[in-house]
Amino acid sequence: MSENGCLVQGAGLTKRFGGILANHGVDFQVDKGDLIGLIGPNGSGKTTLIHTLTGHLASDSGHVTIRGKRMSGRPAHVFAGMGVARTFQLTQLFGRMTVLENLLVPGLSRPRSSWPDAIRRARGYLDFLKLGHLEHLNAKNLSGGQQKLLELGRCLMLEPDVLFLDEPFAGVHPRLRDELITRIQELHKSGRTFVVVDHDMESILRISQRLVVMARGRKIADGPPSEVRTDQTVLAAYAGL
Amino acid sequence: MRGFHLYVLAAAALLALVLAGRMNQYWMHVAIIAMFYAILASSWSLLAGYAGLFSLGHMAFASVGGYTSALLVKWLAIPIPLGMAAGVTMCFLLGALIGFVCLRMSGPYLAIFTLGFAEIVRITFSTEDDVTAGMAGLHTEPLFNAVSRLPYFYTAFGLLALALALMGALARSRWGLFLRAIREDEQAAAASGIAVARFRILVFAIASGFAGLAGGFYAHYIGILTPSLGGLDLMALLVVMTVIGGMERLPTAVGGAVAVEFLLELLREYGQWRLPIFGVILLLTMRFARNGLLTPIWLQFVRLGEPQLAVATVPAPEVEGKDQRA
Description:
The complex is a heterodimer of chains A (241) and B (326). Chain A is of the alpha/beta class and 241 residues long. Helix content of chain A is 36%, strand content 26%. Chain A has a single domain (3-238), classed as 3-Layer(aba) Sandwich (Rossmann fold). In chain A, the strands form two sheets. In chain A, strands 6-7-8-3-9-10 form a six-stranded mixed sheet, sandwiched between helices. In chain A, strands 2-1-4-5 form a four-stranded antiparallel sheet, with helices on one face. In chain A, helix 3 (99-109) runs parallel beside helix 5. Chain A is globular. Chain B is mainly α. Chain B has one domain (4-306): Orthogonal Bundle (ABC transporter involved in vitamin B12 uptake, BtuC), CATH 1.10.3470. A two-stranded antiparallel sheet of chain B has the order 1-2. In chain B, helix 3 packs antiparallel against helix 4 (80-101). Classes of the chains: A alpha/beta (241), B mainly alpha (326). Chain A binds chain B through residues 54-56, 75-77, 80-81, 85-86, 88, 92-98, 100-101, 104-106, 108-110, 115, 119, 122, 134-139, 141-143, 146, 154, 157-158, and chain B through 174, 177-178, 180-181, 184-185, 187-197, 311-312, 315-317, 319-326.
């Protein structure tokens, strides 16, 4: 992918929590149209990397750029406004607000948005995610899988260029997981870019076009899934060697 | 008919205004104080109920607004409304400052921080008696040179209506939606494109401004101002009023303030025992009706005149979530 197609780039990202080095000089590039699977053992630094690339954490060194613009020190809502959306490892919804209101929040945060337009778009996405019949329920009353879908819908309301999904398949019933995968694939075909973090290797391998592997805070592999799966460093990292 | 409850409220307000002249002076005083607390309860509801910022410094802002207005009127001989406007401005700016300083605080940390602020204000007003007359009390200019309390009743009514109209418009706007999102999850709100810090500062400033408005009115109504106005006792009373009514809606907070103020007077014959009664009511509310005792009544009232199937056509900001698992 050409330089012009680079949406989000992290260069030399290092983040330390006390004595723990969560990310160590990580370079990570997301190009337009990518569908990247980001995997690694627990504690390998995947979520820290997502936090940094979406503005929820400031790195100790290195920098993040969005479409070539340096974002150091910018708050998370600026990242969201520039088309970088994300979900969370543990689903974070506005629990005591209705399903519809959950989507209206990002919908109305966009400049020049209006209530009627936001409501129309929100209902469109709810139908797309098969949550339309639940729009008046409080979000906390949805099942785990429905909450994951709603969180994806909240991202989509930002009309983002790139979506970072942190463990979207965790704890989700297989039927709803298939639903989620289908939606991600449809959205990718329509031009969205995705970075998906998960431990569900089967699901990740089903959807990824590029696989990035992290271990002990470093990126240890980056390439097509067929190559990465046979990479000896990756196999060693997963075997705990 | 949609909005039927608004017509009922308007008719009740009109009736109250017409019949106010027949009220005896004692109950009129109670009604005026109830409206003073209603402005405070509704603005605290905006801060704590909508935005989830549980501040214990709200009465301190009322105190600052009262003293600012009273002292400016005394020193500069400016018109009282101008003094009250200065009090509102002072509280707005001070609220923004406090909101900025405690940006990263929430829950008990924010409560303790604002409690500390309130105590600093109270003790400063107590000890600087050359300026504030300390605990002896600062004599203030009356808003009206009339024997009757009726002009004060109408003024309090007007200020409450103005405050509710402005805060209601805010609560129903996209800003109100963003404040509720911030209350639910700040990180998710930021990921949804909300400038969390900006809105936290803004709501602190706005709520504090309305507290300053109530304090300014109180100063020029009651005639004497003491530092105890900003003390923890009255703050606790404000919390009781708002929580019993229902802190997540402006009308229920107002209802709580009016109901508790009138009940306090009706139970006066029980002396100090009336206060534990309210403590018990508060405990029962927190245990069995966390959304407040008046919230279910208000929700039924709002649905007056609406057809049964109208839920699907209600605009999004008014939609009530149902507590049933999908």
